[in-house]
Design goal:
The complex is a heterotrimer of chains A (284), B (455) and C (289). Chain A is an alpha/beta fold and 284 residues long. Chain A contains eleven helices and nine strands. Chain A has two domains: 189 residues, 3-Layer(aba) Sandwich (Rossmann fold), CATH 3.40.50.700; 52 residues, Alpha-Beta Plaits, CATH 3.30.70. Chain C has a domain of 173 residues: Aspartate Aminotransferase, domain 2 (3-Layer(aba) Sandwich). In chain C, strand 9 and strand 10 form a beta hairpin. Classes of the chains: A alpha/beta (284), B alpha+beta (455), C alpha/beta (289).
C-alpha cells in the first residue's frame, strides 16, 4: 500500500502498478482526465487543518479548478461515505475506543493511493496525547492515537495548525507526481521525500525531539527556526539556544520539523527559487 | 403512523453529527433529534492539574473554526478565577481578534449554506466552487473576506487559526503602529466587501424562503413558511465580545444554569423504517437500522431558567437590538447582518488602541481556587468556560460551548419541517460539532453506528 | 566556479559610500547599507538584525525599521543571535509585509527551508523580501567569548571595541587601543559544536552574501545570488550606495575564499562522516538527507 513508498529505491517495483491504480481511481470517481481526486477525512481533530486548507483563499479555487477534485470532506461536500481517491488528507487522531473512527481510518487507507497526515494531531497526536477519558458523557473515550499507529502513512504535514502553504505545496507535488512529466515527477519525489521520511520516522514529536535529536546530538547552531515555528510560544532562546517550556508544549512537532538540523535536503532547498517560481506559476 | 428516518452523518458543517427524525405520513417531522457522534477528547478532564497557561492553548484546539472564542473564554475564566485585571490595550487587541474571527467564520458559513440556495429567478442551486459567474465573484469575495479576517486575527492574535498571542494577564506582544495601520486598512477594505456580501446573501436567503419548493434528491419538497421556528428563548451576553462579570452583564448567571442528561430529552430505542437511497449523497440509513438517540449519541442539555435556549447571531440581535425574525431564514439573515457590525466595532477598537500601551498585567495572582467564568460570544453563540485555579494549576474546568446550547433548541426547531429539509435547519445554527464533543454520549453499542456509516 | 561558493550571478569587492555606516560596520558596511537602501526604497518594511542585548557583546535579534536602528546593530558579534526566531513575529505584531533578514549561512538555510517547507511558518514564505547572508567559518557560545576576551586576551568584555576573525587570527581590540590577536588554534575548542557539521561557508542560499575574506581591509567580498538579490544589488549600486571593484582586481581575491570554503567544508564533511561511526556499533544523527 502507499504509492509514495515507490520513491524509496527498495520499493521501486511498486511504482507502475500503483500509478495505474491511481488512474483507475480517478476515472471511477469523475471523468476529468487531468485532475487528481482529493478527500478530506476528519478524525478527532478540530477542523483547524481544514480551515488552513481553505486559507489558500483564491488559491483554493485555483487548485479545485485545475488540479484536484474534492471528492470527500463532510464539512465542504455532501458526500457521506468515503470514496476511492488519489490523495486522502487526514485530519485528527483516532479514538481507538470508537469503532467508527477505527473503521474510517482503515477505509481511508484502503481507498486512497496516498495518505497524508495533515496537522499535528494526525501526525503526532498533538493535544490528544493528553487525553485521559473519564469525561461525561463518554468516559470510555480515553485512548487516541496518531493515524500512523494504525495505518501506513505516506506523507506528514506537521504543525498546529499546519500552514496553508505547505498543504498547497503537497497538493501540487502530489499532482505533479501523478500527472506530471518525468522531470516534474522527479522534482515532486524529491520535494516530498523529507515529508515521507518524517512519516516513516514515527508518530511522536514534541519539544523533547529538539532536545534529544538536535541539541543533545550536538547539532543545534541557534538559528531560531524552532522558536519561530512554535504555535504556542513555548520556545525562547537563552544564550542563543532553544529553551522549551514543556508545560506549554502541545506536542505538534512543528519545532522539530522546522529545524534545519532535524532534516535538510541539499537536493531540494538550494533549488528554492525555481521551486517557488514553479508553485507561483501553477497557482496563477 | 409515524416513521423513523436517520440521516448520518450530516454534512456541510464542522464535525460529525447525525439526525434521527420521527416523521408522519406526509414526511413532516414530529420529533427531531440532532446529536453529535464525534469522539470525546475530554478537554475538561485532561485540564485538571495542568497549568492555567497551558489549558487555554489546549482548549483552543477543540475547535478550529472558533478557536478564538475558546482561547479567550479559557483565558478569561482563569483570569476571573485568579482575579487578574488586564490592561485596556490588551483587551482591545482581544476584541479585534474576536471580531476578525467572526468575519472569517461567517464567511465560511456562506460557503457551507450556498449549495442549499438558488440563484434568484432560476431553479439552479449554487455550487460555490463553480468557476462560472456570477458565483465565482461571490466565492472570491468570500475568500477575500476570510483572508481579511484571518490576516487581522493573525496580526492581533499571532496565529490565524489557534491564536498564540493571548495569555493569562493580557497579551504577549503589543502591535506596532505599522501593524495597527495594516489592520485598519484591511478592515476598511473588508467593510466594502461585507456590505456587498451581506446584500447578496440576504437576497438569496430571502429568495429561498419565498420559493414553494426545494429540490432534494430529485424530488420537489415543499418549503414551509415556518421552517425552523421554535418557541425557546434566546441567550446572549454581549453584542460581540462577552463578559466575565455579573455586574457588567446580568444575562449569564451561573445560578440560573442547569444541565440535564440526554435521557430526559431525547427519544429512546427505535428502528429505522423509512429510507431514501436517493437522498444526496449516499442516501439515508437503511430500513432496520437500530437507533437510540437517548442512549446512543447525544449531548447533555444545558438549560437556562429550566429551558434550552438559542445562542448565536439571532440571539445576539434579539437580545441587544430587538431583532424578531424567526426560523431558519431569520437566523441566516441575522448572521449576515453581523458582518458589517463586526467591522464597525473592529474599527472602533482600532481607533482606541494605543500601540505604546502596556499589554500585560503588572501582577498575575496564582489563584486560590475561586470559581471564575467567562462568557464569550463566539460566531455561533455564547461560549462559557468555567474554571477554578489554585497555585497556577487548574483544579476544575468546564466548557459550555455554543453548539451544545443549540443542540436541544435545534431539535425543537425541527418539528413541522419536511425531513428532507432537516439539514437546512441544522445548518442555520452554523454548528460546530467538534467542540460540542465533550458532552456527548455514545453507548457501548456503537458498533451499530459504525456499520451504518461504513456500508 | 566550484560548488563550494554556491550559485551566484556576480561577485565583486565593495564598500559602502556612507561614511557614517562605515564608522561602525564590521567590514565594508554592506549589510547595513543594503538594508538602509531597501528600507528607503520600500523594498523591505523592516529587517531582522542582531541588535544589542542585555550584556556586553551579547546580540539580541531585533526588527529594525529605521536607519538609526540599523546603525545600532552594525558590526559582528561572534556569538549566537537567533535571528530566524523573529521571522514569523515580524509579519504578525510588527505588521511587516516585506521582511529583510541578515544571518549566517545556516540561518539562510533555515530561511529557505522555512519558505519551501513552512511547517510552523504560516504566511511567511512570500514575505521574505531580502535575505542577506554573511560568511561564516564558525560561531561561539556567549561564554566562549567571555573566556576568550577575559582569559586569553586579558580584556574586560565591556571594554572590547571590536572583534574580528581574519588572517588566521581572532583579534580583540579594546577601547583604549590594545590589540590582541589570538591564534585560531586557541579558539577552536571554544567553537559551537553545531558548527562542525556545517557545509556552507559563503551563505549559498542568501539573496546577497558578503564577508571580509577575499577583499582588502575595510572592503567586503559580495556574492549576488538570486534574481531578487541581483535586482536589489544592481539598483543600490546604481543609486551610488557602494563603490565596487572587480573581484579579480583585488587581493587576495576569490582564490582565498575558495580555499577557506574548501577547508571548512572538507573538515566538516569529515566530521559528518565520523558521526556515522561515533560509538561502538552506534552513530550520531546526521541531518542531511
Ligand atoms: C559568527 C560569525 C562568523 C563570521 N565569520 C566570517 C568569516 O570567517 N569570514 C568572513 O569573511 N566573514 C565572516 N563573518 C562576517 C563578517 O564578520 C561580517 O559580518 C560581514 O562581512 C558583514 O560586514 P558588513 O560590514 O558588511 O556588515 P555590517 O554593516 O557591519 O552589518 C553586520 C550585520 O550582521 C549582523 N550580525 C552581527 N552579528 C551577527 C550574528 N552573530 N548573527 C547574525 N547576524 C549578525 C548585524 O546585526 C548587522 O546587521 C562572520 C560573521 C559572524 C556573525
Ligand atoms: S493539528 Fe491543530 S489544527 Fe489540526 S486538528 Fe489538531 S488541533 Fe486542530
Ligand atoms: S515546543 Fe512548540 S512547536 Fe515544539 S512540539 Fe511543542 S508546541 Fe509544537
Ligand atoms: S531550529 Fe534547530 S538548529 Fe535552529 S535553534 Fe532550534 S534547535 Fe537549534
Ligand atoms: S559555522 Fe555554520 S552552523 Fe556555525 S554559525 Fe556559521 S553558518 Fe552557522
Amino acid at each position: 500500500m502507499g504509492l509514495l513508498s515507490s520513491v524509496f529505491k527498495k520499493n521501486d517495483q511498486q511504482k507502475p502498478a500503483d500509478v495505474a491504480k491511481a488512474e483507475i481511481t480517478k476515472k471511477e470517481v469523475k471523468p476529468v482526465v487531468d485532475k487528481i481526486t482529493v478527500g478530506h477525512v476528519h478524525m478527532s481533530g478540530c477542523t483547524g487543518c481544514l480551515v488552513s486548507l481553505a486559507d489558500n483563499y483564491g488559491g483554493l479555487l485555483t487548485i479545485l479548478d485545475k488540479y484536484a477534485d474534492l471528492v470527500y470532506g463532510l464539512t465542504l461536500a455532501d458526500v457521506r461515505h468515503i470514496p476511492k481517491m488519489d490523495v486522502a488528507l487526514v485530519e485528527g487522531s483516532v479514538c481507538i475506543n470508537d469503532k467508527l473512527s477505527v473503521e474510517e481510518i482503515k477505509q481511508t487507507r484502503e481507498k486512497a493511493a496516498i495518505v497524508v497526515a495533515v496537522g499535528g494531531c494526525a501526525s503526532y497526536g498533538n493535544i490528544t496525547r493528553f487525553c485521559r477519558g473519564g469525561q461525561q458523557n463518554q468516559p470510555q473515550h480515553e485512548a487516541f492515537l496518531p493515524i500512523g499507529d494504525l495505518i501506513k502513512v505516506d506523507v506528514y504535514i506537521p504543525g498546529c495548525a499546519p500552514t496553508p502553504q505547505l498543504i498547497r505545496n503537497v497538493c501540487i507535488m502530489a499532482y505533479l507526481l501523478l500527472k506530471g512529466s518525468p522531470e516534474q515527477k522527479a522534482l515532486a519525489t524529491n520535494y516530498l521525500k523529507p515529508l515521507m521520511m518524517a512519516a516513516q520516522k514515527g508518530t511522536s514529536a514534541c519539544f523533547c525531539d529538539l532536545m534529544t535529536e538536535v541539541i543533545d546530538q550536538g547539532l543545534c547552531m541557534g538559528c531560531g527556526s524552532c522558536a519561530a515555528a512554535c504555535p504556542v510560544r513555548a520556545i525562547t532562546h537563552e544564550y542563543g539556544k532553544p529553551q522549551g517550556t514543556r508545560d506549554l508544549c502541545i506536542k505538534c512537532g512543528a519545532c522539530y520539523n522546522q529545524c534545519p538540523r532535524s532534516w535538510f535536503s541539499f537536493d531540494v532547498v538550494p533549488e528554492y527559487e525555481s521551486i517557488m517560481e514553479l508553485i507561483d506559476t501553477v497557482m496563477k | 403512523m409515524s416513521k423513523v428516518v436517520e440521516i448520518s452523518p450530516t454534512t456541510r458543517h464542522e464535525g460529525h453529527s447525525k439526525l434521527v427524525l420521527k416523521v408522519n405520513d406526509a414526511g413532516i417531522i414530529e420529533t427531531g433529534n440532532w446529536c453529535s457522534i464525534t469522539p470525546v477528547r475530554g478537554v475538561e478532564r485532561l485540564a485538571v492539574g495542568k497549568t492555567m497557561e497551558q489549558v487555554p492553548k489546549i482548549a483552543s484546539r477543540v475547535c478550529g473554526i472558533c478557536p478564538i472564542a475558546h482561547t479567550l473564554a479559557g483565558i478569561e475564566s482563569m483570569e476571573a478565577s485568579i482575579g487578574c485585571e488586564i490592561p485596556q490595550d490588551a483587551y482591545l487587541l482581544r476584541v479585534i481578534l474576536q471580531l476578525a474571527n467572526r468575519l472569517h467564520s461567517h464567511a465560511l458559513h456562506d460557503i457551507l449554506i450556498l449549495p442549499d440556495l438558488y440563484i434568484p429567478g432560476t431553479d439552479t442551486k449554487i455550487n460555490p466552487f463553480t468557476p462560472e459567474e456570477p458565483v465565482r465573484s461571490v466565492a472570491k469575495r468570500i475568500q477575500r473576506l476570510r483572508e481579511i479576517g484571518q490576516t487581522i486575527g493573525q496580526i492581533a492574535g499571532g496565529e490565524a487559526v489557534h491564536p498564540s498571542n493571548p495569555r493569562i494577564g493580557g497579551m504577549y506582544k503589543a502591535c506596532t503602529p505599522r501593524a495597527k495601520a495594516k489592520m485598519y486598512d484591511l478592515a476598511k477594505e473588508g467593510l466594502v466587501l461585507a456590505h456587498q456580501q451581506m446584500d447578496f446573501m440576504i437576497a438569496v436567503i430571502r429568495n429561498f424562503h419565498k420559493r414553494d419548493w426545494a429540490e432534494v434528491g430529485g424530488k420537489k419538497i415543499a418549503i414551509p413558511k415556518d421552517l425552523g421556528f421554535h418557541n425557546q428563548g434566546y441567550m446572549a451576553t454581549h453584542p460581540f465580545y462577552g463578559s466575565t462579570s455579573l455586574d457588567e452583564c446580568p444575562t449569564w448567571d451561573y445560578d440560573r444554569f442547569k444541565e440535564v442528561r440526554p435521557w430526559d430529552w431525547y427519544m429512546g430505542e427505535m428502528e429505522v423504517d423509512l429510507a431514501d437511497p436517493s437522498y444526496p449523497i449516499g442516501g439515508t440509513s437503511p430500513v432496520g437500522t437500530k437507533v437510540n438517540p437517548q442512549m446512543e449519541a447525544c449531548t447533555g442539555i444545558p438549560m437556562y431558567d429550566g429551558q434550552p435556549v438559542e445562542v448565536g447571531p439571532r440571539a445576539r440581535l434579539a437580545v441587544f437590538k430587538g431583532y424578531d425574525e424567526k426560523g431558519t431564514q431569520g437566523q441566516n439573515i441575522a448572521r449576515e447582518m453581523e458582518y458589517t457590525d463586526s467591522l464597525y466595532a473592529m474599527l472602533n477598537a482600532l481607533d482606541e488602541y494605543d500601540p505604546s500601551g502596556p499589554v500585560l498585567a503588572d501582577e498575575i495572582p496564582c489563584g486560590d481556587g475561586s470559581m471564575g467564568w467567562s462568557a464569550n460570544e463566539a460566531p455561533r453563540g455564547t461560549d462559557v468556560h468555567l474554571a477554578r485555579v489554585k497555585d497556577n494549576k487548574v483544579l476544575w474546568y468546564s466548557m459550555l460551548v455554543p453548539t451544545t446550547w443549540n443542540f436541544a433548541t435545534c431539535s425543537a426547531a425541527l418539528t413541522g419541517a419536511p425531513w428532507q429539509l432537516a439539514e437546512i435547519v441544522v445548518r442555520g445554527y452554523d454548528p460546530c460539532v467538534s467542540c460540542a464533543t465533550h458532552m456527548i454520549v455514545i453507548d457501548e453499542d456503537n458498533k451499530l453506528v459504525a456499520q451504518k456509516l461504513i456500508q | 566556479m566550484g560548488a563550494e561558493l554556491g550559485k551566484y550571478k556576480s561577485c565583486v569587492s565593495a564598500r559602502s559610500t556612507d561614511k557614517a555606516i562605515l564608522a561602525g560596520a564590521q567590514d565594508g558596511g554592506i549589510v547595513t547599507t543594503l538594508f538602509a537602501y531597501a528600507l528607503e526604497e520600500g523594498i523591505i518594511d523592516g529587517a531582522i538584525v542582531a541588535g544589542p542585548g542585555d550584556m556586553p557583546w551579547k546580540p539580541r535579534p531585533m526588527i529594525a525599521t529605521t536607519y538609526e536602528e540599523l546603525m545600532a546593530a552594525r558590526g559582528t558579534k561572534y556569538n549566537i543571535s537567533p535571528n530566524v526566531s523573529f521571522i514569523k513575529e515580524a509579519t504578525r505584531s510588527y505588521g511587516l509585509d516585506k521582511v529583510g533578514i541578515v544571518g549566517t549561512p545556516c540561518q539562510m538555510q533555515a530561511v529557505r527551508k522555512g519558505q519551501l517547507y513552512p511547517i510552523g511558518l504560516r504566511d511567511v514564505s512570500d514575505k521574505i523580501a531580502l535575505a542577506v547572508g554573511i560568511f561564516c567559518m564558525e560561531n561561539f557560545p556567549y561564554q566562549s567569548i567571555v573566556q576568550l576576551a577575559e582569559d586569553h586576551a586579558a580584556m574586560k568584555l565591556e571594554s572590547v571595541k571590536k572583534m574580528e576573525i581574519g588572517k588566521g587570527k581572532f583579534t580583540f581590540m579594546s577601547e583604549r587601543g590594545a590589540v590582541v590577536p589570538l591564534p585560531l588554534k586557541v579558539t577552536h575548542k571554544y567553537e559551537q559544536p553545531g558548527c562542525h557539521v556545517c557545509l556552507d561557508y559563503v551563505a549559498n542560499l542568501a539573496d546577497v552574501s558578503c564577508g571580509s575574506v577575499g577583499s582588502p581591509d575595510g572592503w567586503s567580498t559580495v556574492f549576488v545570488r538570486s534574481k531578487k538579490g541581483d535586482d536589489i544589488w544592481a539598483k543600490s549600486v546604481a543609486a551610488g550606495c557602494f563603490e565596487t571593484k572587480a573581484i579579480d582586481s583585488v587581493k587576495p581575491g576569490l582564490e582565498l575564499v575558495t580555499k577557506l570554503a574548501n577547508e571548512k567544508i572538507g573538515k566538516n564533511q569529515k566530521t559528518v562522516e565520523e558521526r556515522k561511526t561515533f560509538g561502538v556499533g552506534k552513530g550520531l544523527r546526521i541531518p542531511y538527507i
